[in-house]
Design a protein that fits this description.
318 residues, 13 helices
Length: 318
């Protein structure tokens, strides 16, 4: 009887496993089917783009728009061109910047603050914030900085290129993860005071970082050192947007700018491929269907490229 019971247990386990696999497969197929249907609707409603990547003329059903600021899309472009999953598909890639950067009232305060005040930490959350920080640091005469915390590999690389050493990078490239993982300063703890942190930020950055750290007892000084504004599009760029089947977003600001610039277009929304959860959440908040949002669990260019590949494969399964 023990042998029979054992076989029965194995049989039940096998049935449960097969059911779970089937359920997963069906879920993936439903998501891909919905994305494919979206692609079909889009291709029926919009003209195909004729100018392909590299300037050659050809027609393609899959058009990917890279929406970072001008000149900052090369990493994703290269990752897509070298991605084996993308290589076999008829896809065109073009740059369509959604945002531009502008100064804020706090822009001119950063250099004097760096020159006159010492903080335990300086938190930098994006490559653009790294650029603004480095410019002010150089203007201030390269004063000694506290430990610099960088959100994400790209931000760390940008700071390093400017000669600023990075002491801390959270395990995941989000402000929420930085809030959880950044340790209090040993110097501050020994002195019996709060850990101080300077946060040069975008004016549109959410309050996740400073509010979260303040709840942990940090003394946070936020300076809104730059702003992101929607880029103005030419008629040609509007035509490109009308042809896009996939739009790649690296920030909530880019999502909002895309919607603003495409509000008058009589075409279905492009599928959204996001660098991470923050941009994906912005898409949800602006009524993208969940099945039309693709993003990696851990933010980064390689994962972002794989998210685009997944979206393309789903559309190709029509």
């Amino acid at each position: 009887m023990a042998v029979v019971s054992g076989w029965r247990a194995l049989f039940v386990a096998a049935v449960v496993f097969a059911a779970n696999v089937a359920a997963f497969t069906q879920t993936h197929q439903r998501r891909c089917t919905r994305a494919a249907n979206s692609c079909r609707r889009h291709s029926q409603a919009t003209p195909e783009l004729e100018m392909a990547e590299g300037g050659s003329i050809e027609s393609s059903p899959f058009v990917v728009a890279l929406t970072r600021e001008e000149g900052k899309n090369d990493k994703l472009r290269n990752a897509l061109l070298s991605n084996e999953r993308v290589a076999g598909l008829p896809v065109q890639i073009y740059e369509l910047p959604c945002i531009e950067h502008a100064d804020c009232p706090d822009t001119d305060k950063l250099a004097p603050t760096l020159a006159s005040s010492q903080f335990d930490y300086v938190a930098i959350t994006s490559p653009e914030a790294a650029k603004v920080m480095a410019s002010a640091w150089i203007e201030a005469g390269r004063p000694k900085l506290g430990n610099v915390a960088a959100v994400g590999k790209a931000t760390q690389e940008a700071l390093t290129q400017y000669g600023i050493e990075v002491a801390f990078v959270p395990s995941k490239a989000t402000a929420a993860t930085l809030v959880k993982e950044l340790p209090p300063s040993d110097t501050a703890v020994d002195a019996g005071r709060a850990t101080t942190l300077l946060y040069p930020a975008s004016a549109k950055a959410q309050e996740t970082l400073q509010k979260g750290l303040e709840k942990r007892g940090f003394d946070v000084t936020r300076l809104n050192t730059y702003d992101t504004v929607p880029a103005s599009w030419s008629d040609e760029q509007i035509s490109l947007a009308q042809s896009a089947t996939i739009a790649c977003f690296a920030s909530p600001s880019a999502v909002k700018a895309w919607l603003k610039n495409t509000a008058e277009l009589q075409t279905p929304r492009a599928l959204a491929c996001c660098i991470g959860e923050t941009s994906a959440s912005a898409c949800r908040e602006n009524q993208w269907e969940e099945s039309n949002i693709f993003y990696p669990e851990k933010p980064g260019v390689d994962g972002w490229a794989n998210a685009v590949a997944e979206a393309l494969e789903c559309m190709a399964e029509k």
